[in-house]
Write a structure and sequence with these properties.
Layout: H1 2-45, E1 53-57, E2 62-73, E3 83-89, H2 93-96, E4 100-104, E5 108-112, E6 118-122, E7 127-137, E8 140-144, H3 146-195, H4 199-234, E9 237-242, E10 248-252, E11 256-260, H5 267-283, E12 286-287, E13 292-293, H6 296-327, H7 332-344, H8 349-372, H9 387-411, H10 415-423, H11 428-439, H12 441-457, H13 492-501, H14 506-541
Antiparallel strand pairs: 1-2, 1-5, 2-3, 3-4, 6-7, 6-11, 7-8, 7-9, 9-10, 12-13
Helix pairs in contact: 1-14, 3-4, 6-9, 6-12, 8-9, 9-12, 10-11, 12-14, 13-14
């Protein structure tokens, strides 16, 4: 009887612990799903166009904008009854200095959604809310009245968008190429000064360089003249807008990204606008201190940095794990090395950033500049922060993860596989490279997946070794050597920090934080899914090795 009672108690304890573990797992999953749902809802709502409301207050003043939030007002001695207030995005930052305004509902006497209300998305100063009054070309009146201006505005704005694209292509194409050639000639002149050639040879070469420089300068002047003319033509037409309180503002049509009448748009039109804004967010460059526009440079910089980190960390981590598991004599020294590797995983990431700045940037980068780029000094080439040094710093940060995962994968390969390979005449190296490493590949990829996930979210070390708020040029372009590892880069993690905590317009940029965080999760998930698919394929291929 006592034995049965003891058995029942053990079964009860075991069942309780199993239920507790399952409950903890379910709670963790709920928390993760709740976090993803919160980010997804707020991030996806950032791109949806709300209707424009016109509010008339008790004093007769009017407010035009989008309602973004509402909250209750607790009772006070002056107002014993609880109330409610709304947050309206009124835009017109160049006139009002604030994008948002709180209004008490008790002060609102009338509310409407006028069909002629227009929202303009601009290259600068954010959104403008008002009504169209006139369309002008200098002093010439092209159209007057809301409906007539709206009808004439569409074709004109499409032409201005084409002109703006042409200006951007001219700036980044021919003018950028000429500037690149002029900089190369300047460095060539400096390189010639350092060469200490005979005077006759020096004068001959300098004359050749001066001739090429003069040709490039003339080409630049011609392109600059074309650019100024194109800009003047882009800004020739102006749109006169009137705010809800009667003030008027002239806005260049070429500075308008998009003009909308949200109250006249149906669900299908708003859905098309929603998709176009998502594409703009993913594919365009940022503007207005990163609070508007797209974040393509940040996406590109994050993905490129993670792949460079992967190319650096996998050989380093796999070779270290192979030596520790397959070749090193197991003893106190190896155990101390493993303890050191595990402790290295707990070092704060900012410490790796300081190490990367001192070792990679100043020591290695400075040496490269003195040996291979003396003509550019004192302006550093590799002796300053860049995407290469950021990737190598994160490789050191994540190498303990790869080492531990690779060792676990190597340990899971049965010893009989090694013995069979050696018995068939293979050498130790052939056995390791052709038998053990392929069988342990799923474990290696597990370490790589963990390393990629951590590297994609790290910000602190990258702030020291090359990440910037805005990078005007991508690390890859059509100029030789095409991949410029010395350039600075943008990163989604730092973009979230910058928009959320450094933005001068916090209320307007807060939804952008959720949208960027959602995109970062998507990017990391896609990269991890690719690695997981490869790992599962290898696992099925080597299923016989019991990995």
């Amino acid at each position: 009887m006592a034995k049965n009672s003891t058995t029942r108690r053990r079964d009860f304890v075991g069942t309780s612990l199993t239920a507790l573990c399952g409950g903890a797992l379910a709670l963790n999953l709920l928390l993760i799903l709740g976090l993803l749902l919160l980010i997804g809802v707020y991030g996806a709502a950032y791109f949806w166009q709300r209707d424009i409301v016109e509010l008339t207050r008790v004093d007769g003043s009017r407010v035009l904008g989008e309602i973004h939030d509402r909250e209750s007002i607790p009772p006070t001695p002056d107002a014993p009854e609880p109330g409610e207030r709304i947050k309206v995005r009124v835009g017109n930052r160049d006139l009002t200095a604030n994008d948002f305004q709180w209004l008490s509902l008790s002060s609102v006497v009338d509310r409407g959604t006028p069909g002629d209300a227009v929202v303009l998305e601009r290259l600068e100063w954010g959104n403008f809310y008002g009504r169209m009054v006139e369309l002008r070309h200098g002093d010439e009146l092209l159209a007057s009245g809301g409906d007539e201006v709206w009808r004439r505005f569409g074709p004109l704005h499409r032409e201005k968008v084409r002109q703006r694209d042409a200006v951007r292509k001219l700036e980044r194409g021919p003018i950028g190429d000429v500037n690149f050639e002029i900089e190369k000639l300047r460095l060539e002149t400096r390189r010639l000064e350092l060469a200490r050639l005979p005077e006759a040879e020096l004068a001959r070469r300098q004359e050749q360089i001066d001739g090429r420089m003069a040709a490039r300068q003339a080409e630049y002047e011609e392109l600059a003249t074309r650019l100024f003319a194109a800009r003047d033509e882009l800004m020739a037409e102006t749109l006169v807008m009137e705010t809800a309180d009667g003030r008027r503002k002239e806005i260049a049509v070429g500075a308008i990204v998009r003009a909308l009448r949200p109250n006249d748009m149906g669900p299908l039109a708003k859905s098309g606008l929603y998709l176009s804004r998502i594409w703009e967010f993913v594919a365009d460059d940022p503007r207005e201190s990163n609070t508007e526009g797209g974040i393509f440079p940040a996406i590109f910089g994050t993905v490129m940095m993670v792949f460079l980190m992967s190319f650096a960390v996998v050989p380093l981590g796999v070779l270290a794990a192979l030596y520790l598991r397959e070749y090193a004599k197991q003893g106190p020294l190896v155990r101390m090395v493993r303890i050191a590797v595990n402790n290295l995983a707990g070092v704060p990431s900012i410490v790796f950033g300081v190490f990367g700045l001192g070792f990679f940037v100043y020591t290695i980068g400075g040496s490269i500049d003195r040996l291979f780029y003396p003509e550019a000094l004192p302006t550093p080439t590799f002796g300053t922060g860049g995407i290469l040094w950021g990737a190598l710093t994160l490789a050191l940060l994540t190498v303990p993860v790869v080492i531990v995962a690779t060792e676990e994968g190597l340990a899971a390969v049965p010893g009989i596989v090694r013995a069979g390979s050696l018995a068939l005449g293979a050498t130790k190296w052939e056995t390791t490279w052709k038998v053990v490493v392929p069988a342990a590949a799923p474990g290696i990829l597990t370490g790589l997946i963990l390393a990629m996930a951590r590297a994609a979210g790290e910000v602190a070390p990258l702030m020291i070794v090359g990440m910037v708020k805005l990078a005007p040029a991508l690390p890859i372009d059509h100029h030789a050597p095409f991949v410029h590892l010395e350039r600075k880069f943008m990163h989604l993690g730092f973009h979230i920090y910058d928009v959320g905590f450094q933005s001068p317009n916090v209320d307007a940029s807060k939804p952008l934080v959720f949208a960027t965080a959602l995109l970062l999760i998507v990017v990391v998930t896609v990269m991890n899914l690719v690695a997981i698919a490869l790992r599962n394929r290898l696992r099925r291929r080597y299923a016989g090795s019991a990995v």
